[in-house]
Every structure is written in C-alpha cells, then in structure tokens.
C-alpha cells in the first residue's frame, strides 16, 4: 500500500444518508437512500456498483436516517420510513439473518425521526435508539425474545447526532441534548423486562 486515497462512485444520482459495515472476510456493505427514486439500496464491495433495492419507496424527498451493523456474517439495518411527507414515521428494523431481508416495524406513526442508531449485543440481539422530532428518545430491543419499545427521555433529545455502543450489559448512548450539549446516557436493557 502506498498510502494513496482511492475513490469509487457508489451511486449515479443524488443520495441522502448512508451507512457502511464490514465483518470478517465478507465484502463491505453500503446502505444508502436515493432521493430521485425514493428507495433504499444495499450494495456490496469491492466495487459497490449495481446496488439491489432493499426498500421500494420510503415516501419522502429527503433521505431518512439509517444505521447498519453486522453480527457475524449477517446484516442488521434500522431506518425511518414514511408515506405522508414527514408527518408520521415508522421506525423499522431489517435483517438478512434468514438469507433474505425480513422487516419488523418497531414504532408506528410516531413523529418525525431526527436521529437513530443500532448496536448488537454478544447474543446477536439488536438495541435501537432513536430521537423523534418531539425531542423524545425511544429505546427498542428484541433481547427478551419479542420486540419492545420504551421512552427513556422526554423532551431532552435535541437532534440527529447520536451514537450507541453495547458493552458489558449496558447500552451507552452519546447524543446532543436540547441545549446542544453532548450527553451520555446509560440504558440497562432490563428496562424492557
């Protein structure tokens, strides 16, 4: 390696948000939304061209937030989805653990989503945090076997900047609060039991 930058074009027209993940010897995966087609695509390396349509239409002109992670060689994706131009959003989780993509709706008809992230625990269970446009933070997980969702903060989650990390039985969330200050929240998944 010479240390030079190598650039590759992934999409041929306007794109919104994107996420990338890699696991072991599997090719890297990029998930992105494309504004002109209103679709979410998934594509794999090494050239990342000819992405397959994952979501037919997410219904808005701007790209919804999304997050992608691997657990072993299987991909896990969480994203916001709407059909009514920003009024009501669903937060959805998709995975290819069974070989083809399967989708579950975590939150139905919530207010707009300003940010979200996904972490996986050592048992392969998903932990999803999202902030809505009412500045509430919601936590969803399937760690008990079935998906459950709870509001963990009311009126204090101030934006799209959030990141999660699952470590030693706790979900750590770094987020920007309503005063635009960086905050850390520790969520014990037992809150859903």
Describe, in plain words, how this protein is organized in 3D.
The protein is mainly β and 193 residues long. 0% of the residues lie in helices and 54% in strands. The chain contains no helices and 15 strands. The strands form 4 sheets. It has a 4-stranded antiparallel sheet, with no helix packed on it. Strand 11 and strand 12 form a beta hairpin. It starts with 14 loop residues before the first strand and ends in a 6-residue tail after the last strand.
Taking pLDDT < 50 over at least 5 consecutive residues as the criterion, the unreliable ranges are none
The largest sheet is: 4 strands, antiparallel
Write down the Rg: 17 Å
End-to-end C-alpha gap: 50 Å
Structural class: mainly beta
Spatial arrangement of strands, main beta sheet: 1-2-3-4
Residues in helix, %: under 10%
SSE layout:
Elements: E1 15-21, E2 29-34, E3 39-44, E4 52-55, E5 66-71, E6 74-81, E7 89-95, E8 102-110, E9 113-120, E10 126-132, E11 137-141, E12 148-153, E13 157-167, E14 170-177, E15 182-187
Antiparallel strand pairs: 1-2, 2-3, 3-4, 5-6, 6-7, 7-8, 9-10, 10-11, 11-12, 13-14, 14-15
In short:
The protein is an all-beta fold and 193 residues long.
Main traits of this protein?
single chain, mainly beta, 4-stranded antiparallel beta sheet, globular
């Amino acid at each position: 390696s010479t240390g030079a930058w190598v650039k590759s074009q992934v999409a041929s027209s306007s794109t919104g948000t994107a996420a990338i993940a890699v696991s072991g010897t599997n090719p890297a995966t990029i998930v992105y939304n494309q504004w002109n087609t209103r679709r979410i695509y998934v594509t794999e390396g090494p050239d990342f061209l000819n992405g397959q349509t994952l979501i037919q239409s997410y219904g808005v002109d701007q790209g919804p937030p999304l997050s992608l992670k691997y657990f072993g060689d299987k991909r896990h994706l969480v994203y916001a989805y709407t059909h009514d131009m920003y009024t009501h959003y669903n937060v959805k989780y998709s995975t290819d653990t069974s070989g083809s993509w399967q989708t579950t709706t975590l939150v139905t008809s919530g207010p707009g989503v300003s940010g979200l992230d996904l972490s996986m625990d050592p048992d392969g269970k998903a932990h999803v945090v999202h902030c809505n446009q009412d500045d509430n933070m919601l936590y969803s997980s399937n760690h008990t076997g079935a998906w459950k969702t709870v509001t963990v903060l009311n009126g204090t989650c101030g934006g799209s900047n959030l990141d999660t990390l699952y470590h030693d039985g706790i979900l750590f969330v770094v987020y920007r609060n309503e005063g635009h200050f960086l905050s850390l929240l520790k969520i014990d998944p037992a809150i859903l039991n």
